[in-house]
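Case study B.
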Amino acid sequence: EIVLTQSPGTLSLSPGERATLSCRASQSVSNNYLVWYQQKPGQAPRLLIYDASSRATGIPDRFSGSGSGTDFTLTISRLEPEDFAVYYCQQYGGSPFTFGPGTKVDIK
Amino acid sequence: EVQVVESGGGLVQPGGSLRLSCAASGFNFDSYAINWVRQAPGKGLEWISAITNSGGTTYYADSVKGRFTISRDNSKNTVYLQMNSLRAEDTAIYYCAKEQIAIRPRSGNDCWGQGTPVTVSS
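Model:
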């Protein structure tokens, strides 16, 4: 089983700042099948990034994904008020398709 | 409108069974893989099962393998999750989610239901 570790656990930032979230896998994620989701309280997750770096339909370009192998990053270039949420990475490189524990981005 | 709607959750005693349903509409159902993901109260997301578009291949998390069974009926645009031998730790909101790219699974889930709550308690 591939274990995903996300850091930091909580990121406290102000609107307009840059957010950098990390997702590290215990072994290489094949084909870089790594996705990122955003979840707000009481809502279902929203797909942001797939294949490590491709933005899903309708996702603003301030969201970008990068990385390969075992190290992946989600960057939000300038935080908007609606971006404060919990972010999860998930790997599809091999079953079981595990999630990371999440990074909470909150308002400083 | 593309949507998936879960149903079948509820309160069940430990050791009991439930069958969840995921009814889909607004897209070519038989072209898309479907996943089940759960979230325990105040906790993170846990992927638990997936089924390919044809139903020919299924996947399970270790925590549910041997107890849960995923299936689909493409004539009814519905995916099912049969849950047996339920435990307290299965208490969660259960989400059904559609993969975003037809035929090609492992592309992330772009359409999620509102979730159906399952509580396992005596």
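Chain B has no helices and eleven strands. The remaining cases will be described in the next quarterly update.
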